[in-house]
Amino acid sequence: MKSLVCALALLTLLALGLSIGIAETGPQEAPAAFDGATNGLVDAATHTADAEVFDEVEEISDGLGPLYNAQSCRECHQNPQSGGISQVTELRVGHLDSKGNFVNPSVPIADGSTVITGRTLINDRAICPNGEFPDAEIQERVPDTETIRTLRTSLNLLGDGFVEAVADETLNQIATSQCHKTHGRICGKAISVPVLEAPGKYRIGRFGWKDQQATLLSFAGDAYLNEMGITNRLQPTEVTTLCDTVKDPEDVPGTDGLADIDHFARFMRATKVPPRDVKLSQTEDAKKGSALFDSVGCAQCHVRTMQTVPAGTQINGGTFTVPPALGDKIFHPFSDFLLHNVGTGDGIVIPVIEHYGMSYYEMQPQYSLTANRMRTPPLWGVRTRSRLMHDGKSLTFADAILRHRGEASLERKKFIALTNRQKRQLITFLKSL
Length: 433
What we know:
It is built from 13 helices and 17 strands. By secondary structure, the chain is α+β, with helices and mostly antiparallel strands. It has one domain. Strands 3, 4, 7 and 9 form a four-stranded antiparallel sheet that branches. A hairpin with a 5-residue loop joins strand 3 (89-96) and strand 4 (102-103). The chain is globular.
């Protein structure tokens, strides 16, 4: 009998140990901090080296331009550290045809001898005229014909490795749930976009104000060409060859076998998520504001919590295997990463050639729904931003909330109906994010 009792006790301890082991290996919180350190994807030295590439100032000899907006990734993504947001905006334009369809602009440069087409982006800088090309006037300007004009702020990239590791099914389920719960009043749109590193493969977009990219490598290749004018293996064609003196593709692998866009993607994947303001979040006002955030309905689109796919899952058309540092992680972006019409849409449709290249020219019609929809901006780290909404025109949290219309009209009315104290509490909560 004594031996039987001991055996049962041992089995109980083993079962308890197994249950503890399962709990320990379950989903974990994603690391959060503004410390510039790696989230565990790579070691500290590798992350520092990738950050240096991200921060590097490009020169004409590196392939900068001929048309561009910035000389480094850091220039547009640096608050409070590299990878964060900034006050920098980009300019986009277009017009409607006689049937009301959006049309990309035709932008003449070089005294009209060359016309830039296929993009909505107007680059604010150019490398010419310069000493080698003193008569080359290639600066882009907005033609009078382009009556749709908008600014877009740069985006936070911190924690985006976890966003990339969210399953398409998760985003689709959120969209379906929203539409069902609100009886069709709020229906986020998920769009499939090309995975540039896996030709012929598609995935739900989640990066950019129009969800125009689904992977961080695609995002890096897109930005390197369109924001800095540097051609790469994913975007090998120059916007214009005027003043261009560096052989394409300009972004070539280094001694480590990686090109700059590979370093950019790995850097973004290795960043920690934006943390809460711990002190403010523990105040009574912030806690009450958190409850109001839900009761007003903000959390329907600004989804609090998501979970990444298990480690070992292949994503991005089979080109990336989710590592343990990103797999089975819980994070709190306060976004559904879907497209919504909340009355602030800029009228711009995704320019297919600009973001995906000439081989995707025929895809334009399926993206018409993006004209007046914008991606729900993640609110993590929003306390580090002085300019809100996609265009940066809202300068206070109240201003931003009151701009909401369309799908968010009811939530706007609920906010207006709050007492002044309740409004302050809700805004205190936002300031803690």
